[in-house]
Amino acid sequence: MNPEQAVSWFRKASELGNADGTCSLGLCFYQGIGVEQDLLWAVRYFKKAAEGGSIRGMFNLGFCLHQGSGIRRDHEQAASWFMKAAENGHISAMYHLGRCFYTGVGVLKDLEEAASWFRQAADKQDLSAMVSLGVCLYEGHGETRNPEQAVEWFRKAIELGSADATNSLGVCQFWGKGVEENVPEAAESFRKAADLGSEAAMVNLGHCYYWGNGVEKNLSEATAWYLKAADLGNVYGMFYLGNSHCETAGAEMVSDLSSSWQRDPRTQELLMGVANSVCTTTKGVPEEEEIVPTLELPEEASG
Predict the structure, then answer these.
(1) Do 108 and 157 share a domain, yes or no?
(2) Is the pLDDT of residue 275 over 70?
(3) Is residue 135 one of the residues assigned to a domain?
(4) Which of 117, 162, 184, 252 could disulfide-link to 157, CB 3.0 to 4.6 Å?
């Protein structure tokens, strides 16, 4: 493998008018492969590629506009380029466009349109879209509420290795929605998802240990899982970690969230449940990056 040679050939292809070669050259600048990383040049090449008809270029330009990477953030323009790429069959663009419609970022919020794009991408095996469609079915967002079908989509995503789909299934098992209620199995699903890196599942597993739901009550284990989520920047992990330390010290909790859990944790959905577990992060590169979901509709892809 010779990155410098790759850049040289992409550049030659680009100079001869090949739009995909131009897009690949842009990716090299975006990632710093074979050349010094330069997001400004990356965006220039993505724009040239997109205008030249490259579907990948359209998506990548939309991604950069959405993130504000190498160009001023412009959600409306981002959604426009996602739409062009999606209409030309780009699967990740379908998911991102669905996310725009779900959140109302760059376009008017339209849950039916969002669910439609999630379904199109899910049918083409996009992992994040599968989870997002499952959440729409679970919540009745743009689709007729159908927890059973939601579980089917979560299971399909789990088969492909989705941590957040595993967490979502755990929520369904915990509350008996779309599947028979089984709290021990829910706790085990949370554990599997947490081990795969789902921050939501770490918090949920912490809740299980805190209340003794599906596992033996263990405040030390609860605190440990909250800490893992908090260390990853999860605000709920931070919140409950703070609560657990205060309670360990015998301090009276006055937070509304804390008091509601103290009264009866089963009277409400897990805070990190399906409603906040849809779609969610890209790994920092446009192109064909997979967007890993986590329950609350499509969080901003991180660039």
Answers:
(1) no
(2) no
(3) no
(4) 162
Report whether pLDDT(279) > 70. Answer: no
CB distance 293 to 132 below 8 Å: yes
What does the H/E/C string look like for 210-271?
Answer: HHCCCCCCCHHHHHHHHHHHHHCCCHHHHHHHHHHHHHHCCCCCCCHHHHHHHHCHHHCCCC
* Domain match, 153 and 298 both: yes
Q: Quick one: CA dihedral 119, 122, 126, 129, positive or negative?
A: positive
Q: Are residues 191 and 238 in the same domain?
A: yes
Identify the domain containing residue 10 by its residue range: 1-124
Q: 197: domain CATH number?
A: 1.25.40.10
Task: Tally the residues of the chain.
Answer: 303
Task: Report strand pairing: 292-295 vs 277-281.
Answer: antiparallel
| Adjacent-strand bridge partners of 278 | 294
CB neighbour list of residue 166: distance below 8 Å, 6 or more residues apart: 154, 158, 189, 192, 193, 196, 198, 201
Give me the pLDDT at residue 136, please: 95
User: Do 163 and 88 reside in the same domain of the chain?
Assistant: no
In the predicted structure, residue 106 carries a pLDDT above the cut 60 = yes
**For position 214, what pLDDT does the model report?**
94
Share of the chain above pLDDT 90, in %: 75
78, containing H or E segment: helix 75-87
Residues 212 and 119 reside in one and the same domain: no
Q: Which of 69, 91, 124 is the last residue of a domain?
A: 124
pLDDT at 245: 76
Q: Taking residues 196-219, what's their average pLDDT?
A: 93
- Look at residue 138 and tell me if it is in a domain: no
Domain count, the chain: 2
